[in-house]
Design goal:
Pectate Lyase C-like; 6 helices; mainly beta; single chain; globular; 11-stranded parallel β-sheet
């Protein structure tokens, strides 16, 4: 009996010792990560990435499977600064765990991370997952050879960084801060690029000033074409350095004594490039950046759909010829807001083929105001519909809100709303001009682009020449003009002559008394005029 009890006690002791041994093993591994052997390629990347300028800006995406990227661009923060990847990072290791570096070079590849082994699995590292293309890869232009000294030509480095990003969805091209990159005419093009590419602009891009870089003349300097889900954002600057074209265009300016400077101007081509153009693209975002001193238009969208522009600053001198701020053509579903525009032409120009345009919370001036047109030039058809411009401040602009069409054109401008426009020392705040001509003389023609359904609400402030100018066609009178809460008071400016409101063949309604009274507006609809619908004309 005693021997049986001793045997049972010995057995219990052995069981207890076994349990304690297991607990100690788990405690010894607690908080540690197993690190897989680095592949030869990751070792090469690590060595290649060391000591390169701008390497601190590099990031990489997690190696774990990610959801399919959306077709729409990733959302940007409200202030337009910075970017948050739509792909969530891997969970951070525990504070006591040693963290291994994750080298990334300009090609965007990173060493994959492996999960922490569970307790009691032994000392063998887990099997590595099947390699996959990283999502959210970052391509820094410096890693592709860009110098960023403002003198060396960095065009090829930008092209190489874009080509690498183009092959991967949801990737980022980084233009790092505190550097200035000289870039010649360049096209970041699709249509074979994968969607949702972010161009993170935090440095400065400057245009070449030598005539040789522009050849016989180009229509654009920086172009993004045929892309889906492309975004440009950051705190950076695009500087068109267009002074040579402005001076070249001013034939009456003979006060410059710098002979060498003038000789270089004479070599510049007469065709002036737009600074930044998007063509044939979907889901475009431009946020936070600054565009200055373009030779012609600063920012242009042509044949695009789904455009968002916000927290952007555009600036060039008042006397810089034809330097529109934002130019829209054949584009739909466009939103422009919380943006500052100062230039030598229209702050925003809306051309033919545009619809569903929403502009709000914009500061405009100096410049020529916000314009629809000119439309119908050279007897062409032009159609614009569903435009809203609201909550806009205009300061010392040539016009406020304007619709301008050439004689001889066809088509229709319809469903336009100008609301809550504050004007200060604007020459003519409200204009419809169906006799627009930017030359000394234009021939009289019968047909015209029709204008119908234009609302003016709460247009208030001061003018220096004329409060309202409605000059409409005899054959196609303006119809459906409504005015509510219009209060415009004169400010006498030297060399300016104040005029009363002017109307010709303009029909509509005065829903409230106006200041000054606009008695020239014909109330109701034009007699005997068969108004055609947008569908009929466009």
């Amino acid at each position: 009996m005693k021997l049986r009890v001793k045997g049972l006690g010995l057995l219990l002791l052995l069981v207890l010792l076994a349990l304690c041994s297991t607990i100690d093993v788990c405690d010894a591994r607690r908080g540690k990560h197993w690190r897989p052997r680095s592949s030869p390629s990751s070792s090469l990347l690590r060595n290649k990435g060391k000591g390169k300028k701008g390497s601190s800006n590099r990031q990489h995406g997690s190696n774990r499977p990610s959801p399919k990227p959306p077709l729409s661009p990733p959302p940007s923060p409200g202030n337009g600064k910075g970017y948050q990847s739509p792909y969530q990072p891997s969970p951070s290791p525990s504070p006591n765990a040693p963290v291994s570096p994750s080298p990334v070079n300009g090609s965007g590849h990173a060493s994959p991370k492996s999960p922490t082994p569970s307790c009691g699995k032994g000392n063998q590292p887990p099997s590595r997952p099947t390699p996959t293309s990283p999502q959210g890869a970052v391509f820094n232009v410096v890693d592709f050879g860009a110098k960023g000294d403002g003198v060396s030509d960095d065009t090829k480095a930008f092209e190489a960084a874009w080509a690498a990003a183009c092959k991967q969805g949801a990737s980022t091209v980084v233009v790092p801060s505190e550097l200035e990159f000289l870039v010649g005419p360049i096209s970041f093009s699709g249509p074979y690029c994968k969607p949702n590419i972010l161009f993170q602009l935090d440095g400065t891009i400057v245009a070449p000033t030598s005539a040789k870089a522009w050849g016989s003349g180009l229509l654009q300097w920086i172009e993004f074409t045929k892309l889906n889900g492309v975004s440009i954002q950051g705190n950076g600057i695009i500087n068109g350095r267009g002074q040579q074209w402005w001076t070249y265009s001013d034939i009456d300016d003979d006060e410059d004594d710098d002979t060498q400077y003038d000789v270089e101007f004479e070599r510049m081509p007469q065709v002036k490039p737009t600074a930044l153009r998007f063509y044939g693209s979907f889901n475009v975002v431009v946020a936070g950046i600054t565009i200055v001193n373009s030779s012609q238009c600063h920012l242009k969208f042509d044949s695009c759909q789904g455009v968002m522009v916000h927290d952007v600053t555009i600036s060039s001198p008042e006397n810089s010829l034809n330097t529109d701020g934002i130019h829209l053509q054949n584009s739909k579903d466009v939103s422009i807001h919380h943006t500052n525009l100062a230039c030598g032409d229209d702050c925003v120009s809306i051309q033919t083929g545009c619809s569903n345009i929403n502009i709000h919370n914009v500061n405009c001036g100096p410049g020529h105001g916000i314009s629809i047109g000119g439309l119908g030039r050279d007897n062409t058809k032009a159609c614009v519909s569903n435009v809203t411009v609201r909550d806009v401040n205009m300061f010392r602009t040539m016009t406020g809100v304007r619709i301008k069409t050439w004689q001889g054109g066809l088509g229709l401008v319809q469903d336009v709303r100008f609301s809550n426009i504050q004007v200060s020392e604007v020459q003519t705040p409200i204009i419809i001009d169906q006799f627009y001509c930017d030359k000394r003389t234009c021939s009289n023609q019968t047909s015209a682009v029709a204008v119908s359904g234009v609302q003016y609400e709460n247009i208030r402030g001061t003018f220096t020449i004329k409060p309202v100018h409605f000059a409409c066609s005899d054959s196609s009178p303006c119809s459906g003009i409504t005015l509510t809460g219009v209060q415009l008071r004169p400010v006498q400016i030297p060399h300016y002559r104040l005029n009363d409101p002017f109307c010709w063949q303009a029909f509509g309604e005065l829903y409230t008394p106006t200041v000054p009274p606009i008695a020239c507006l014909h109330l109701g609809k034009p007699a005997g005029n068969n108004l055609q619908s947008y569908h009929d004309l466009c």
